[in-house]
Backbone:
């Protein structure tokens, strides 16, 4: 069975600073996808970034980037130049070859003005 | 439609009543998922539909929960004889299942959720 672990229930960062959210996962599969989703107080889940396991290059989306360490089964999210609008719950997710998604318990991020 | 639509957005019901929650996925998305999110918690998988295949019901917490997807599009999640512990936000998501390198494939798009409160 696949599991996704987010060991940081809550984090805070000063506006304009950089923060890294941790995620580890467990799987015996070789081909899979990893995601970070953001859930602001409006509760709408929004895709932040996606990484295919077969790609060694870390995905980036503007201020968001990941550090994907396949051997260590680690998938952290780095947010640069944090903005107030980044305040949200962040969920790490894993998709297996059967198109089943597994989510972590989330990290609540607060950006402090 | 342009996004995943869920209704109602909020539902308050009395213990013991039945409720139906509706999800209208993005047109053309073959996969549809239901998740439950209790207050301050992560996402609990409930059920997964993919095309014409038999749904994966492994996450349904009890036989009071059921779901169907008619015509490969709209899905309804039904909770019978609701209990207070059923109170949660029920999220629906859809995705286009495709080749690994297909743009937009295998990405979940979520609806805004249906908040259920059982008194």
Residues:
């Amino acid at each position: 069975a696949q599991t996704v672990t987010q060991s940081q229930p809550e984090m805070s960062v000063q506006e304009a600073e950089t923060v890294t959210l941790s995620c580890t996962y467990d799987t015996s599969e070789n081909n899979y996808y990893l995601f970070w989703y953001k859930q602001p107080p409006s509760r709408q889940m929004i895709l932040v970034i996606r990484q295919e396991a077969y790609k060694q290059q870390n995905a980036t989306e503007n201020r968001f980037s990941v550090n994907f360490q396949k051997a260590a089964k680690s998938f952290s999210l780095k947010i640069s130049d944090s903005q107030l609008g980044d305040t949200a719950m962040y969920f790490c997710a894993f998709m297996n070859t059967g198109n089943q998604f597994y989510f972590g318990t989330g990290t609540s991020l607060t950006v402090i003005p | 439609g342009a996004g995943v639509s869920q209704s109602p957005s909020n539902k308050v019901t009395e213990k013991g009543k039945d409720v139906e929650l509706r999800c209208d996925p993005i047109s053309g998305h073959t996969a549809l998922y239901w998740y439950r999110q209790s207050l301050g918690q992560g996402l609990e998988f409930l059920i997964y539909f993919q095309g014409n295949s038999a749904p994966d019901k492994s996450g349904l917490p009890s036989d009071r929960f059921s779901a169907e997807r008619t015509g490969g599009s709209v899905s309804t999640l039904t909770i019978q004889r609701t209990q207070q512990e059923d109170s949660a936000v029920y999220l629906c998501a859809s995705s286009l299942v495709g080749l690994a390198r297909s743009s937009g494939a295998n990405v979940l798009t979520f609806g805004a959720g249906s908040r259920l409160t059982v008194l």
In short: Chain A has a mean pLDDT of 94. Chain A touches chain B at residues 31, 33, 35, 37, 42-47, 50, 52, 54, 91, 93, 95, 99-106 (CB under 8 Å). The radius of gyration of chain A is 13 Å.
